[in-house]
Amino acid sequence: MTPRADHLTVEVVDLIGTVVARYHEEYEHAASQHSLTGAQARVLGLLAAQPLPMRRIAQRLKCEPSNITGIVDRLESRGLVERRPDPADRRVKLAAPTDEGRRTAEALRGSLNFAREPLGRLTVAERTLLKELLQRMLGTAPE
Predict the structure, then answer these.
(1) Which backbone phi and psi does 91 adopt, to 5 degrees?
(2) Are residues 113 and 26 in contact, defined by beta-carbon separation less than 8 angstroms?
(3) For all residues of the chain together, what is the average pLDDT?
(4) Which positions fall inside the HTH marR-type domain (predicted)?
């Protein structure tokens, strides 16, 4: 790698770090507005997309299943999540959002404002390119 390319890589990594830090700060603030921890909000957000077994939630969030059990217990006690049997395997329990949980997840997502304004300054083509580049970096680009 040339010195210029190496310097550019460092700059990009620093910018990504700044975006991630701002995202986490905004996410924690938005979660607290709904009396949730950041971890509870992330679990609720995942479940709003689809009910999941605890093990899958733990894999997606890169944490121990026992941590997820505690988080789901707290969300369940607030009426935001329920446990139900997996129709494909009755031995497995899925965590699923309640109607109130879905509303809370939607409100939480709607309150994450830090990127809306900066992304709004990009054209649709620029946002599409950014999305595709991020997907390539993560290895999730459609083939």
Answers:
(1) -75, -20
(2) yes
(3) 90
(4) 9-139
The residues, ordered by sequence, that sit 6+ positions from 39 with a Cβ below 8 Å of its Cβ are 61, 67, 71
Q: Is 143 helix (H, G, I), strand (E, B) or coil?
A: coil
Burial class (CB in 10 A: 0-12, 13-18, 19+), 9: exposed
Each residue's pLDDT tens digit, 73-97 = 999 999 999 999 998 888 889 999 9
> Does the CA dihedral 26-29-30-36 come out positive or negative?
positive
Q: Across the beta sheet with 81-86, what order do the strands follow?
A: 52-53, 89-97, 81-86
* Rounded distance between C-alpha atoms, residue 90 and residue 76, angstroms: 20
Residue 81 has what DSSP assignment?
A: E
Instruction: Give the CATH number of domain 3-138.
Output: 1.10.10.10
For the entire predicted model, the pTM comes to 0.77
pLDDT digits (tens, 9 = 90+) for 19-39: 888 888 888 988 999 999 999
